[in-house]
């Protein structure tokens, strides 16, 4: 079973396209995550989402967002003429934001009201311990 979980930062804004023949939505973008070796630059990986997830990705996730991705790792072979290159790609099945996305941060919640203090109205001599 090929199951892959990754916590990463969205590195490029998602690009939404459709397949030419059947018009199935497809979103792809790059994510980056820290290298396992100190001092090395972050690793980058292409993430692809299909159908309803593609639309969700394009609407809700933007460069700089921290996300958790669940999917399967796929190796693609690209013919470069004189050589063939293997490239990893994460085909997403679910994506969850970690913290606020840039869209949520830009529009503050209208329903926010601070919670009242819990113990301020009790005199200290009435606390049972």
Quick recap of the structure?
The protein has 129 residues and is mainly β. The chain has 2 helices and 6 strands, in the order ββββαββα. The protein has a 5-stranded mixed beta barrel.
Notes on the protein architecture:
- By secondary structure, the chain is mainly beta.
- Helix content is 11%, strand content 43%.
- It has two helices and six strands.
- Strands 1-3-4-6-5 form a five-stranded mixed barrel.
- β5 and β6 (84-97) form a beta hairpin.
Number of beta-strand segments: 6
Rg from Cα: 22 Å
Q: Give average pLDDT, whole number.
A: 86
Instruction: Quickly name the level 1 CATH class.
Output: Mainly Beta
> What is the total domain count?
1
Element string (H = helix, E = strand): EEEEHEEH
């Amino acid at each position: 079973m090929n199951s892959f979980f990754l916590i990463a930062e969205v590195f490029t804004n998602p690009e939404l396209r459709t397949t030419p023949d059947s018009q199935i939505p497809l979103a792809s973008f790059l994510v980056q995550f820290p290298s396992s070796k100190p001092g090395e630059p972050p690793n980058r990986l292409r993430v692809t989402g299909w159908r309803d997830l593609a639309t969700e990705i394009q609407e809700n996730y933007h460069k700089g967002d921290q996300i958790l991705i669940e999917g399967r790792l796929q190796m693609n072979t690209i013919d470069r003429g004189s050589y063939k290159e293997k490239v990893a790609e994460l085909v997403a099945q679910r994506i969850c934001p970690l913290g606020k996305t840039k869209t949520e941060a830009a529009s503050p919640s209208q329903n926010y009201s601070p919670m009242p203090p819990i113990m301020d109205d009790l005199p200290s001599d009435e606390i049972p311990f």
